[in-house]
Amino acid sequence: xxxxxxxxxxxxxxxxxxxxxxxxxxxxxxxxxxxxxxxxxxxxxxxxxxxxxxxxxxxxxxxxxxxxxxxxxxxxxxxxxxxxxxxxxxxxxxxxxxxxxxxxxxxxxxxxxxxxxxxxxxxxxxxxxxxxxxxxxxxxxxxxxxxxxxxxxxxxxxxxxxxxxxxxxxxxxxxxxxxxxxxxxxxxxxxxxxxxxxxx
Length: 200
Fold this sequence. Notes:
Keywords: Signal. By secondary structure, the chain is mainly beta. It has one helix and nine strands.
């Protein structure tokens, strides 16, 4: 089911690219994530700074309203202060709990003024990687986790965007998971995103 949903999402965006015209826009975007976990069992977590990147399409319904589907790779999770004063395990100052997702948001886009819009809607998120990284400042220290976090997360995304006449846009967004990272643990993903993109 997960693979079929992802294939369908890419087909929608691929079809958008093939049919791009004045009334239909297709592009790419990327930026920085400030991600963390919220919930009663995530009180000691700190934010993980990482990235997101992906594809975006815009389907205008009226002059002031559009539907905006996206497919985004989003590196999320949290950071934990390392407790290893003797450096026994050769760790950095912090340890990253890395939860990376393919996110498929389906957003309503409302234009407040020329180029300025707000966006909000549900997001269907699929876990693609779960790791503990004891050395986030180097290429080593990764420990893969199998059968850990839930494979699927239902969430939301909301934000503000300004698009220039040449197609370049800047964007800020908040994302939040409604379903738990683990079934029996009170911990939910959230992230603040800031980035840029371009639509054709």
